[in-house]
Amino acid sequence: MDLRHARTFVAVAELGTVSRAAEQLRIAQPALSRQIGDFERELGIRLFDRIGRRLALTGEGEQLLGDCRALLACALAVRERARLLQHGDSGVLKVASSPQQIEGAIAPFLVRYAAQYPKVQVKLTEVLGWPATAAKLERGEIHLGQNLIGAVPPDDARFACRPLEPVDLLAAFGPSILRESRGEIEIGQLAQYPLLVVDTDHVFRRHFDAACRLAGIQPNITFESRAPHTLLAMAENGHGVAIIPAALRTDRYNLRITAIVYRGEPVRVQPAIYWDKRRSLPRYAEAFCDMLGAYMREVFPITRPTELSAMRC
């Protein structure tokens, strides 16, 4: 079987049109169409039905798509193992993470990592949500992807993970709000305040919503943003209480910070680094996981609850 045919089939199935697949694979559309035709003749089945300008997988094509993805992943694993045998502790390491994790932990950590692995080029990608991370891991676009423990369904054995330091959820607010707060606040008490939160693409938002449901409260959400620093600017100007992760840097804002608790226990999430079990991680990728875990234990939380005396007026 020609791997080019399998790669073309997967690209067309994922993108839905010959033109978009040809652009991604950087081949001419007629050549791509011929590859699909050759693949169908080789397999003896029709893989696509044409619906307008789009191509839809046939039932047989849907059943073969997963097998072709696995075939390409295995081929990639063989090439990567060969490169490892050649180069040892030099190469490219592709890592995907959330913008907050990159700012709070990975960006400063890379200085330490580069000192020990100067021949490794780390390429970072911003990704929100497990589906996007899982897709990149499956396609071999990244070696490591950061998300939360529990993001992977229990019956999905494709991915392994390395737990990282827990991240608490915090409330950030200006001097006119929560004057009597002294380090922590029960999540139920937040219902009386206007809340500033990230949108539901963020796992921290979904975890906060779940904690609110557990506490039996309806949060008064008055503003949502994709950028957590926008929430801090809004809170600093008295527009409400920003709900943020402890991995976020807040030192340039005039805000008080309070831990969010439920029945006296901190509301927190457990991040992890994931990788595809079918791929062999280079030694420098395994070291990245170990060193990042140690670094986060050393410096987390990035932001801590403040004392009343520390509030700038």
TrEMBL record:
Xref: InterPro entries: LysR_HTH_N, LysR_subst-bd, WH-like_DNA-bd_sf, WH_DNA-bd_sf
Pfam families, per the entry: HTH_1, LysR_substrate
Keywords: DNA-binding, Transcription, Transcription regulation
Top-level taxon: Bacteria
Domain HTH lysR-type: 1-58
Record flagged with keyword Isomerase: no
PANTHER family linked to this entry: HTH-TYPE TRANSCRIPTIONAL REGULATOR CYNR, TRANSCRIPTIONAL DUAL REGULATOR HCAR-RELATED
Similarity field: Belongs to the LysR transcriptional regulatory family.
Protein name: HTH lysR-type domain-containing protein
Gene source species: Paracraurococcus ruber
